[in-house]
Design a protein that fits this description.
By secondary structure, the chain is α+β, with helices and mostly antiparallel strands. About 30% of the residues lie in helices and about 10% in strands. It has a three-stranded antiparallel sheet with strand order 1-3-2. The termini are far apart.
């Protein structure tokens, strides 16, 4: 039987704090709700857990890391590229109008 180090297993509160530390903020109550909900395929939407009694679950630290990694989006480019204009203004040519330019009389 494999030896389990105590630091490998987290309570729901610790798992939520660890997930938040990794960049995916979640509350302990949200984790509890996620344990009961399923996606369209029938998979539980929360991280894997072990129920040790009817009221207590433990989460493996490595499972939380994988679960957070799967939910964080891939790196993306910034909305404004090198010219500094947001996407909605691109292709519109130079900006004109009283709010962007002041004309000398």
């Amino acid at each position: 039987m494999p030896t389990i180090r105590p630091s490998e297993w987290l309570t729901r509160k610790e798992a939520a704090a660890y997930s938040t530390e990794l960049g995916y903020p979640v509350e302990p109550t949200t984790l509890a709700t996620m344990n009961c909900k399923r996606d369209r395929v029938g998979r539980v939407i929360g991280p894997p857990y072990k129920r040790i009694n009817p009221r207590r679950c433990l989460y493996k630290r490595s499972d939380i890391e994988r679960w957070v990694e799967a939910r964080l989006s891939k790196r993306r480019k910034a909305i404004a590229d090198t010219d500094g204009r947001p996407l909605s203004r691109r292709g519109a040519g130079p900006q004109t109008g009283s709010h962007t330019e002041q004309h000398a009389p």
